[in-house]
Fold TBC1 domain family member 23.
Amino acid sequence: MNKYIPRDCSLKGRPFHLFRLLIQYHEPELCSLLDTKKITPDSYALNWLGSLFAYYCSIEVTQAIWDGYLQQADPFFIYFLMLIILVNTKEFILAQESDSKEEVIRFLENTPSSLNIEDIEDLFSLAQYYCSKTPASFRKDNHHLFGSTLLGIKDDDADLSQALCLAVSVSEILQANQLQGEGVRFFVVDCRPAEQYNAGHLSTAFHLDSDLMLQNPSEFAQSVKSLLEAQKQSIESGSIAGGEHLCFMGSGREEEDMYMNMVLAHFLQKNKEYVSIASGGFMALQQHLADINVDGPENGYGHWIASTSGSRSSINSSVDGESSNGSNDRGMKSLVNKMTVALKTKSVNVREKVISFIENTSTPVDRHLLVTATHMYCLREILSRKGLAYIQSRQALNSVVKITSKKKHPELITFKYGNSSASGIEILAIERYLIPNAGDATRAIKQQIMKVLDALES
C-alpha cells in the first residue's frame, strides 16, 4: 500500500502540507480562503488519501477510480484527483463565506460521496491537465513520501509546513525553458540586490530588487507592473525567457533572502497562480552548472550565466542584410538561432526611470550593435564560443521615434522606441549606448531607418 498511499498519512502529516502547497500553486484564492478559516487539508482529506476515496464512494465508483489511478502508475496522481474534487467546491465555499469552520470541513469531507461513475472520465481528464501544469520537482523532491523503504530525510527538507510555496530545482528551470511547445515554462525573477545581479545572473532572468519593497514602495509597485508586462510580452514573442509560471530566485542564503520572501508573500496575497521559488537560489544554480560541467571545464558557466561588467559598447553596422564582415542574412539567421534572448529589454509601457532601474545600466558593458534591413540588435559576445553572441535587445527600425545625444557626451546615444499618432508619441522602450564614432554610427542607422520607412510608404 505504501506505493500508492503516502507514508505519514496522519493529522499534520507531510502529505497534507504538500497538498496545501499544490492547492496554493493552482488555486491561490481558494487556498487563501481556507487558510483564513484555519482549515488545513488533513482536516477534510485525511480519509480521501488514506482510503483512496473508498471511505466515501460507492464500490462501483471506487473501482473506477482505483483502475484509473493504477493505470497511471504515478502515485502522485492521487493529489491531482483530490485537487479537482476540491476545486469543484470552490464556488460553493466562496458563496458560503459566513459558514463556520466545522460546517465547511463537514461539507468538504463528504464531497467525494457525490461522485457518479459518469464523472470519472472528466475527473481524470481535468486531473491530467492540472498535472501537466505542475513542475516536475513536485514529484522529484517528495518521492520519499511513497515506497516501502524509509529514506533518511533531513528535518529541514521534510518540514513542508514552513514552506512559503512550491520549490523548483534549478535543473528543472534550465531544462524547462529549452522545451518547445506545451509544458511548464518558467519566467525567472531574480530578487537579489543589484550588485549581486550585476556580478552574475541567469541570462534569461528578470531583475526585481526586493529591497525596494521597503525602501521605495511606489517604485516597487511600478516595477511589479513592468515585470508582469514583460512576462506577457515574452510569452507572446515566444522568447526562451518566457513562461506563465513565475519562479523567484534569491541568493540561497537565508539571511539575505528575507526580502525576497516578502516579495513572494506579496504575490501570493494577490492570489497570483503558478508561483514558485528556486531551490537553493543562485548558489544552487552555480553549483549545478559546475557539477554538469557546462561547456567544458575551462569555460565555467557557459551561456547560462550573464554578467554586466565592462567598459564600452562598439558597433557593427549592416545594411540590406550585409554585415561589416560580409556575412549575409542566412548567416545572421543561423547566428540568431543559436542565441539566447535576454529579457530585460522586453518590458514595454514603463517609465524611463523604471527601465533604468530594471536594466541596471550604471556600469557600461561591451556590446555590439548590428543593423539589418529591418531591425537593430544589441549583441553580447559569447567568449567561450567564437563567432556567437547573445541577443540582448531586438528592436524594429520602424519603431525608432527619436535618436538623441548629449552635448557634453556626444558618444552617449539614446534610442527611444514607440508609436507615433496624431495625439503625439507614445514611448514604449528606451535604450542608451556609449558608441565610439557615434556620428558615423547614427548616420548609418538613420539611413537604414529612412529606407524602411520609404519602403512602408511605397
Observations:
- Confidence is low (pLDDT under 50) at residues 295-302, 309-363.
- The two ends are 74 Å apart (CA to CA).
- Residues 166-306 form a domain with the Oxidized Rhodanese; domain 1 fold (CATH 3.40.250.10).
- The first strand starts at residue 166 and ends at 168.
